[in-house]
Amino acid sequence: MKKLFGVLGCILFLAGLTACSDGEPQGADIYQIYTVSNSETKVEVHPHKMFAVEEEAMLNELVGCLSTSPDKLEYKAPLAMGFEILSLDVSDGKLSIDVDSAYLNLPATTEVLVRAAIVRTLTQLPNVRYVGITVEGNQLFDNAGDVVGLMSADLFIDNDGNEINTYELTRVRLYFANAEGDKLIGAYREKYYSTNIPKERFVVEELIAGPSGKVEGLYPSINPEVKIVSVTTQDGVCYVNLDSSFLTVVNNVSTELSIYSIVNSLVELSNVNRVQILVNGEVPASFGSSAFERNLDYVTTLEQ
Fold first, then answer.
1. 145: CB partners within 8 A, 6+ apart
2. Residue-wise pLDDT tens digits, 93-147
3. Does the structure show a pLDDT above 60 at 225?
4. Which of 9, 99, 258, 304 is 20 to 30 A from 111, alpha carbon to alpha carbon?
5. Using one digit for the tens of pLDDT, what is the confidence trace for 12-21?
6. What is this structure's pTM?
7. What is the DSSP track for the chain?
8. What b/e sequence results for 99-116 when a residue is b if at least 16 CB atoms lie within 10 Å of its CB, and e otherwise?
9. Which pLDDT band holds residue 157 (cuts at 50, 70, 90)?
């Protein structure tokens, strides 16, 4: 376990660090520094060439960047928004950040963006996979009253690779394949997603990404090579347009089961009643002309 700098160490480090994007860096590694926009509606990305080489120094450097506000106030540094870091601790790939109670004064949306910026920046370090935030040693709770535990980078989704818009925590039910590939099993997934993208697209993206591994007995129901062309919803019908790799069977999962993996997952949303699946803009003849409705005949439960 490594105990890293507290407030005094942070101040001393910042005093000796040049501006994060200025000067001639000693190394060539490029890291992305995530900052909060002045409007506090999204997270912006700024490239930074890493000076440090050792793990502890690299962490200190990134924390310095997250704590340093630009001269022209082009954005807000997430660690310079009215609260202070009390301690940092890295152990077994987990970075624990303890902050003072002023952190609780952040508006709910701003607080999510601050968390997103911190997590997305610091999990780029090779020795940090997860980040946890506590407030004066106590658990942090989100706006819904739920405990905010360890956070990984993929908890916060980039909508276009360049910026993170306002996040919303959503809970969706996704249907993945069983071990035999002949039935579907539903599992809930909670995740922050960018409100800039339709929730229907988020559901399809998560299905393609596959099971998280947190629940045993779930297997991919869709070819992970599938690319989304578009996802739109009109009058209760969700139109899911995928590329031709959707027709390639993986893990003994039939195309029909893949279809109902998507359909059953999407109709869990309140605004979707039926789903029309297209491949490169056209409905394959084998799919029929009608949009698909929920089909629970394919659904089973995990064996106890």
1. none
2. 999 999 999 999 998 888 989 999 999 999 999 999 999 999 999 999 877 677 8
3. yes
4. 9
5. 344 334 446 5
6. 0.57
7. -EE---HHHHHHHHHHPPPTT-S--SS--EEEEEEE-TTSSEEEEEEEE----SHHHHHHHHHHHHH---TT--SB-TT-SS--EEEEEEETTEEEEEE-GGGGGS-HHHHHHHHHHHHHHHTTSTT-SEEEEEETTEEEE-TTS-EE--B-GGGS--SSSSEEE-EEEEEEEEEEE-TTSSSEEEEEEEEEEETTS-HHHHHHHHHHH---SSSTT-B--S-TT--EEEEEEETTEEEEEE-GGGGS-BTTB-HHHHHHHHHHHHTTSTT-SEEEEEETTB--GGG-SSPB---GGGEE----
8. beeebeebeeebbbbbbb
9. low
Number of residues that make up the chain: 304
**pLDDT for the residue 250:** 84
